[in-house]
Amino acid sequence: MLKTLLNSLKKQLSQLDFQLQNEESSYRYASLQIPLAKQIALSPIRFSDSFFLSQPDSGFTLLGLDSLLSFKRHGVQRFDAIKDDFSRCLKQWFRNDNDSLHLPIAFLAFAFDDNDAMQGYWQGIPNTLLTIPRILFKEEHSAQSLIVNIKLDSSYSAQLSIIETLLQLFFAQEKTQTRQNAHSTVVKNKQTDTAYKHWKSLAQYAIKQIKSRKFDKLVTSRCHSLRTSDTISTSHLVNKLAHYYPCCSILSYSSCDKTIVAASPEQLLSLQYPDIQSSAIGGTISRNKQSDQQSQSLPFFLKHATEQSSGEFSESKKLLKEHHFISQAIYQNLDPLCYTLKMPVTPFLMKLHNLYHLETPVQGKLMDKHDLFDCIKALHPTPAVAGIPSQQAKQWLINNEDYDRGWYTGAFGWIDANMNGDLSVMLRCALIENTQSKKQTIHLFAGAGLVAESNPDAEWQETELKMQTIMEILR
Q1: pLDDT tens digit sequence for 216-235
Q2: Could you give the CA distance from residue 409 to residue 463 in angstroms, rounded to a whole number?
Q3: What DSSP state is assigned to residue 179?
Q4: Is residue 118 helix, strand or coil?
Q5: CA 350/CA 79 separation, integer angstroms
Q6: What residue ranges define each of the domains in the chain, with the CATH number in brackets?
Q7: Which candidate, 449, 438, 443, 440, places its Cα nearest to that of 467?
Q8: Do the beta carbons of residue 226 and residue 190 sit within 8 Å?
Q9: Buried-state track 78-87, b at ≥16 Cβ within 10 A, e below 16
Q10: What is the pLDDT of residue 15?
Q11: Quick check: 343 pLDDT over 90?
């Protein structure tokens, strides 16, 4: 298969070179696409500057290997700067009239805080990153394509040599992945009293701020670190996440000695111009899977108010209040950008492997003077990850949390040459640090939305539950 792909690439490259010479083109980059007749198992593989994005329920997967071009930004103008970088790049890109994929497709990710210096365990990860891979595998509804992005200069032969090496490594790893160790044993660091006390103190302070009406909601978070006894198979971890959380957006991103893995239930935005969609996720409830099997047993918040105990009624009101803040804020932030915008009156139930969320989709038609980056600026940070008012809550969290969030509660996804794309909030994620030995350090992140009625002990348990998304697969 490798030989066939390389021959097809060389043939396309020769045709492209002939076409560009006849046109006396000034283009500097191009994409070559080959539909794959044979299905390939797409999984994360350990290359520096590689990414894996998947939405299992939608049958959509992207696997990018190596980086042809990368743009890195930080600061308050980061989204405008990265948009300008990408726009200038697109002006230099040769595009075929029959380009149905709107190439190139780039990976986009950014941190919660625009001024986060990305120190400590985030060292080496950019604050805001847009990268166009050298090789991209794309799968959509079982149809697969290989896309090669190249620079149009005299280095064709050198580039083809790099591409051939990457493909050889990919196909060699694809054959051996199933024979690798499934996963390693994790040495769990017990939660210390200090960590719990700090969380409780921060939560109490946040609730006090809410009760004084400085905020309607604050989303406090924490980081928990643990060590492994051996190297983790990223492929195994991601495949398990895709199996248990098929309705989530799955991520694996590797750079140098670090890998970020996530299974996010929350869509920041999806844009296929002019159609835009965002998703309000708020209200988290532990899921009793044994009770799920009994049709007569409903989660307490789905029962009629008259059938709930006083405690259940109080908790239902809190969950709905928290969710209402989020859905209203997303609607209000998108409304000025859209011709039309709609959302249902009551939330839906999102059922995940170990918990429930309340979800409200927000859908509209984007005005032609706005684009994906305008939507990002309008939506980030959502009340689901910061609070309300969002910008003030974000700054309060930056000032009061005892760690830097990095990409956690930022976002990740893809963007194409038409400025369409899909981004998910960076939730249920882990940062894996490799060391010189086989042992690794894993940093887990989780948060909980606080309103005036919140109980710090219950919110601590919610963060524990969210960390189980990754933890239960590592055991």
Answers
A1: 999 999 999 988 877 888 88
A2: 14
A3: G
A4: coil
A5: 31
A6: 2-179 (no CATH), 186-411+426-474 (3.60.120.10)
A7: 443
A8: no
A9: bbebbbebbe
A10: 85
A11: yes
CA 421 – CA 441 distance, rounded (Å): 32
Phi then psi for residue 18, to 5 deg, are -60, -45
Residues 88, 89, 93, 96, CA torsion sign: negative
Torsion angle defined by CA atoms of residues 208, 213, 215 and 221, in that order, rounded to the nearest 10 degrees: 10
Residue 431, helix vs strand vs coil: strand
CA distance 236 to 182: 6
pLDDT band at residue 45, thresholds of 50, 70 and 90?
confident
The token pair that represents 76 in the structure block: 């308050």
Omega before residue 104 within 30° of 0, cis: yes
**Closest C-alpha to 156, from 60, 300, 30:** 30
Q: CA-to-CA distance for 120 and 111, rounded, in angstroms? A: 14
Burial of residue 185, with CB atoms counted within 10 A of its CB: 0-12 exposed, 13-18 middle, 19 or more buried: exposed
Q: Which residue has the tokens 């974000």?
A: 394
Residues contacting residue 454 through CB under 8 Å, at least 6 positions apart:
203, 207, 318, 448
* Distance from C-alpha of 439 to C-alpha of 229, rounded to nearest angstrom: 5
DSSP string, 234-295: HHHHHHHHHHH-TTSEEEEEEETTEEEEEEE--EEEEEETTEEEEEEEEEEEE--HHHHTST
Q: For the chain, what's the residue count?
A: 475
- Non-local CB neighbours of 114 within 8 Å, separated by 6+ positions: 74, 75, 76, 78, 127, 128
Q: What residues does 118 pair with on adjacent strands?
A: none
What whole-number percentage of the chain has pLDDT above 90? Answer: 59
Q: What is the DSSP letter of 380?
A: S
Q: How confident is the model at residue 27 (pLDDT cuts 50, 70, 90)?
A: confident
Does the predicted TM-score (pTM) go above 0.90?
A: yes
**Angle subtended at Cα 232 by Cα 231 and Cα 236, rounded to the nearest 5 degrees:** 145
Q: Compute CA distances 236 → 175, 243, 471, whole Å.
A: 14, 10, 13
Q: How many helices (H) and strands (E) does the chain have?
A: 10, 21
